[in-house]
Design brief:
It is a single chain. Strands 5-6-8-7 form a 4-stranded antiparallel beta sheet, with helices on one face. Strands 1-2 form a two-stranded antiparallel sheet. It is of the alpha+beta class. The longest helix is centred in the last third of the chain and has 17 residues. The chain contains 11 helices and 8 strands. Helix 2 runs parallel beside helix 4, helix 6 packs parallel to helix 8 and helix 7 packs across helix 11. The chain has 2 domains: 79 residues, no CATH class; 165 residues, no CATH class.
């Protein structure tokens, strides 16, 4: 997690507000004296930011789509109210083309998922995966009952994330083991794994997802560029990829992607 008590003490109110919104899954950037949502945001995110800030009675000045905190201080308790703001359930659906090689290759960017439709302790991670150009449909923080997970769009997205995870995220000290699994309606998902007698811990889940989210955001442009330069719609590459997918040889698919993208 980027923030700690020392760094928070050095932040002014506007910086704390930006940090809290980013932790809740909104993609926020500085725009002069204002804050603004980045291009990776969904259409609903701007409406939801306004609704969220208004519901918490946070004093904000709006200048079109940009906003500014009208106080120099922003207490940690208000940051926690933003980061823990409850998500809303929504249906996740996929079309058959999501599983095709052509769809994987053609998509240069991730999906624009509404931040407030995601669970609070995994929303930033879902947004970061999409920001890195890997289509991620949704995420669940498990509600301390089930394993936290992310749902990728098709098998190829999951296999590509496995490559990215091994090359960019394996040096992170995480509380749980996160593995890509290839089953379920979306084709692939990332799942947190714990010991048999261990209980799920919100702080540990949040710590893991934020560490991975921040790392992916730092390398998002590089990851998108690697994908665009490595995978093509030519017949030979399509046949190789489809061979692994159709025969359920997903680990080999990921290994093949790693070699192609070297």
């Amino acid at each position: 997690m980027r923030s700690n008590l020392f760094s928070l003490e050095k932040m002014d109110g506007q910086e704390r507000l930006r940090e809290a919104l980013e932790m809740r899954g909104f993609l926020v950037e500085k725009d002069g004296p204002f804050l603004a949502l980045t291009s990776g945001s969904s259409k609903a995110d701007l409406v939801d930011v306004k609704r969220l800030l208004n519901s918490l009675n946070i004093p904000i000045f709006w200048n079109d789509d940009r906003f500014q905190l009208l106080t120099n201080k922003f207490p940690v308790i208000m940051m926690k109210k933003i980061t823990a703001y409850r998500g809303e359930e929504f249906p996740v659906s996929m079309e058959g083309y999501h599983f095709r090689w052509r769809a994987f290759v053609n998509r240069k960017h991730g999906l624009k998922v509404d931040a407030l439709k995601l669970d609070p302790y995994i929303s930033s991670f879902v947004k970061a995966v999409n920001q890195a150009g890997i289509p991620c449909l949704a995420g669940c923080d498990g509600h301390l009952k089930f394993a936290p997970n992310l749902q990728f769009s098709g098998v190829y997205s999951g296999a590509w994330f496995q490559v990215i995870k091994e090359q960019y995220l394996n040096d992170l000290e995480l509380n749980y083991t996160w593995k890509v699994e290839y089953r379920g309606g979306s084709g692939s998902k990332l799942v947190a794994c714990k010991g048999g007698d261990e209980r799920w811990d919100t702080h540990k889940i949040y710590g893991d997802t934020l560490k991975m989210a921040y790392k992916l955001k730092d390398y998002a442009d590089e990851i998108k560029s690697r994908k665009a330069c490595s995978f093509k719609r030519n017949v030979q590459m399509k046949e190789e990829a489809e061979f692994y997918r159709v025969n359920g040889r997903f680990e080999e698919l990921s290994e093949w992607m790693a070699k192609v993208s070297e």
